[in-house]
Structure formats: C-alpha cells, structure tokens
C-alpha cells in the first residue's frame, strides 16, 4: 500500500533505519557540548542522528564546517558562531607601521575568535611581513629618567616604540621623559619669581619648576644661585669686558674688568658705532664735478684779502659755534633745579695678574747697609718696583744716605761761596805784550 501511494505521487523510496539502528536511535538523546571555537563560552547541540552517525566510528574526526568561508576549525559550533562563520572570509588589512603601504591578512579563524571573545569587528594592529622582520624583535625597554641627577627609569612599551617607527627606516631613539616619581614631583611644583641678582635692580626672574625638580633630586634644599632679570640680562649682553691698566706705577700690564662687574658697578651700555662698510653705504655718493662749478674752485685757490676773509669767516664761525654748542635742556615744569650730568662709574684700582702673583709670595726683606751694616727693610711693593726696572735695590740705610746727602750739599754750598776761576785753555791765551816800537828781547 505504501509503495502504491509513493508510485502514484512519484516520490522516491523513503529512507528508514533498520530495527537495530532504530532501537539505538531511540535510546540516544541530544547533548550539549562546548563550541569548537577557542575562547567561546557557549555550547553546541549534538543531535541523536549526529550521535548515531558517529557511533560506529569512534576514531573518526568531525568534519569541518566549510572550507569555502575561510574558517578551518573542526568540530561543532554554537548557533551564533555557526551563523557568523558562513559570512567570514580572510581580509587584507593595512600595516600598522606609519607610512607603510603594504598589507597583512586577517584570517577568518582570528576573526571568529575575536567574535567569540566579544570584541568589535575591528582588525588588530599588526605589521606586514617586511616590517615584522624589521621591528618584530622590539620589546619593552627601561629608559633612564630625563631629570638631571635622577637614577630611576621609565618603561618604553613595545606599542609606543611601534608608534614611533617609520616604514623602511631604522628603529628611532628613545624619547626624553621623566620617571613616575619625578613626574609626580614636577606636577606638584610651580614657577617662583625671585629677585634679580643685581642689588640695585627691583626686577625678578622665574625659577622654573624643572630647575626646582633638579635641586630636589640632588637633595639641595637651599636657595638657587641668583640670576639676572630680563632687563639686566639684556644690558649684560650689550656690555663687553674691558682691559684696565694696572695700578702699579710703571707697569705695562692690564687686568680685565668683566661685564658682570661693570653691571654691578652701574655701568650703562653704550651704543656701538656702525661698521665702516655700513657707514660708507649709508653716506650718499657725491655728485661728479660739473664744468660750471670749476670757476668757483679756481677762484678759491686765489689769495683773498685779510679784511674780506675775516668778514666772510665771521658768520661761518658764528654758525659753527651755535651748532657745536649743546642745546640747553628744557626745564621740567615745577622744578627749578638744573639737570645734573650722570657720573660715569670708574673702574676700581687693581693690579694685573703678574703683579699680584709677584706680591703673593713676597715678604719684607732685611738688607744690611754696605757702610754701617744697619738692616734695611725692603717691602714687597719696593721689590716690585725694582723687578719692573723703575727703582734700584737699596744699598745704604737712611742715616748713611742722609750723611751722604748732607756732605754733597755742604760741598755745593762751599763751591758757591768760594768760586774758583778755571785756567783758560792754551789755544785761547792772549799773545805776550811787546814794547812799543821794538822787538821782543828774545830776538836780539
């Protein structure tokens, strides 16, 4: 009867189980097994028919889902993983290194694992094969803190290193950063305004918190070394070191008056004269001499009468005198005092380095008098003058020198009181007198 109905309806013969398999199928029940995707916490349902098919072949592996969609995991998948597995395929993703135009392949197996873990459908940051060969060996590095004097380190992670890498270029150098301890200290500090180093200045300079941090790291709790404010720094830049003559008489040496010492003394910077090239460029070029101007030049070469010359030069001299005379300063309203000229600070009197070194190890010497043997005290300043060649070394004591000077004065005084006539030279002697009208007695 069943065959006749199937023949009339043109249906194929039905597939039925044998009595043994049907009996075994009736004894089986659906089972929940873990999903075959690694990381998935859901379960897959293993039906009775699937159990019956694999009952006689215990060593046989379950078939893969499908090789066409890219997922290669074998086993049974949960319903969500099974649905998404049919849509997944391998994807080409751009390299994660900056300026690299190459791509890497995001496998379907990795995509379904990310889906099972609940991650968004965004590819992870990875490198292409070429960049992996260049930067694949990077690892977390410990870099020394940038704070001067700090010996702690900070961690330069691998991801940060990859962010700094550029395609087809060597690995970059580590950036300059603070350790966590120094960063916390730096965050708690603030810039402080401190008075200018110059005593007469009321300006201030900023003590940056970076400098404060360096002092804290070194264990220095004292005040920082004083500095100049902005205005004083500008004036200091306009000043130059000056060479001042040595205070020792007759010494050709000099000592350096530094610009810091000049600024402390109140020296004001002077305007520097322009270079000769700039002055020549700023001077307008003279016009060439004209033929019409040759006559006055020729006339100027002729002699001029004194009266006319004086008459012509008088107004010119008056104009020159009025031009050279400085303009009188305008008096301020309400003040009758005349403005006084500011006194220019003068350099102090100091010795040069050669004189200072000479006097540093010198002491007063005792020299015996060459006549009486009395000791003569020779101070270092006098020794310096002898060293420079200005004085002679002492040989006589004060008493002997006084006696010598007194004797010389007495001799000079005696010479003035009793002058002696010096005999005339033989060439200038007058001829001998002869008697009038005759020859000398020696001629007879």
Summarize the structure.
A two-stranded antiparallel sheet has the order 1-2. Strands 3-4 form a two-stranded antiparallel ribbon. It has a two-stranded antiparallel sheet with strand order 5-6.
Describe this structure in words.
This protein is an alpha+beta fold and 444 residues long. Among the domains are: 4-94 and 103-121, no CATH class; 360-389, no CATH class. It is 35% helix and 11% strand. It contains 17 helices and twelve strands. The chain has helices spanning 2-8, 19-27, 48-53, 79-85, 108-116, 129-135, 158-164, 180-188, 209-218, 230-238, 259-265, 276-282, 294-300, 306-324, 353-360, 380-387, 398-417; strands at residues 31-34, 43-46, 91-94, 103-106, 141-144, 153-156, 192-195, 204-207, 242-245, 254-257, 365-368, 375-378. The strands form six sheets. It has a two-stranded antiparallel sheet. It is rod-shaped and about 195 Å long. The termini are far apart. The relative contact order is 0.05.
């Amino acid at each position: 009867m069943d065959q006749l109905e199937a023949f009339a309806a043109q249906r194929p013969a039905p597939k039925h189980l044998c009595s043994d398999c049907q009996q075994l199928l009736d004894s089986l029940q659906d089972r929940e097994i873990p999903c075959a995707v690694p990381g998935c916490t859901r379960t897959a349902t293993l039906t009775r028919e699937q159990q019956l098919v694999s009952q006689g072949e215990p060593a046989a592996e379950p078939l893969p889902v499908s090789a066409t969609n890219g997922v290669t995991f074998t086993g049974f998948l949960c319903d969500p993983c099974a649905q998404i597995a049919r849509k997944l395929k391998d994807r080409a993703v751009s390299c994660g290194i900056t300026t690299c135009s190459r791509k890497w392949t995001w496998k379907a197996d990795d995509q379904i694992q990310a889906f099972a873990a609940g991650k968004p459908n965004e590819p992870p940051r990875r490198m292409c094969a070429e960049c992996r060969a260049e930067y694949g060996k990077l690892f977390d590095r410990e870099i020394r803190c940038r704070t001067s004097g700090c010996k702690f380190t900070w961690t330069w992670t691998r991801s940060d290193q990859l962010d700094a890498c550029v395609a087809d270029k060597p690995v970059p150098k580590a950036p300059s950063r603070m350790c966590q301890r120094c960063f916390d200290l730096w965050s708690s500090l603030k810039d402080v305004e401190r008075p200018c180093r110059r005593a007469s200045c009321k300006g201030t300079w900023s003590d940056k918190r970076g400098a404060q941090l360096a002092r804290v790291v070194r264990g220095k709790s004292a005040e920082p070394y004083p500095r100049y404010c902005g205005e004083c720094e500008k004036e200091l830049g306009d000043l130059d070191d000056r060479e001042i003559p040595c205070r020792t008489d007759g010494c050709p040496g000099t000592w350096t008056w530094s610009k810091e010492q000049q600024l402390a003394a109140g020296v004001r910077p002077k305007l520097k004269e322009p270079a000769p090239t700039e002055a020549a460029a700023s001077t307008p070029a003279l016009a060439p001499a004209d033929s019409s101007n040759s006559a006055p030049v020729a006339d100027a070469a002729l002699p001029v009468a004194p009266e006319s010359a004086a008459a012509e030069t008088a107004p010119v001299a008056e104009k020159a005198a009025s031009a050279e005379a400085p303009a009188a300063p305008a008096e301020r309203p309400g003040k009758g005092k005349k403005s006084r000229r500011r006194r220019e600070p003068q350099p102090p009197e100091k010795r040069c380095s050669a004189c200072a070194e000479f006097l540093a190890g010198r002491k007063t010497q005792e020299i015996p008098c060459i006549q009486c043997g009395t000791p003569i005290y020779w101070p270092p300043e006098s020794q310096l003058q002898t060293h420079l060649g200005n004085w002679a070394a002492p040989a006589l004591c004060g008493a002997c020198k006084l006696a010598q000077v007194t004797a010389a004065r007495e001799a000079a005084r005696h010479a003035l009181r009793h002058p002696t006539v010096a005999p005339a030279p033989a060439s200038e002697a007058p001829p001998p007198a002869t008697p009038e009208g005759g020859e000398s007695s020696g001629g007879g």
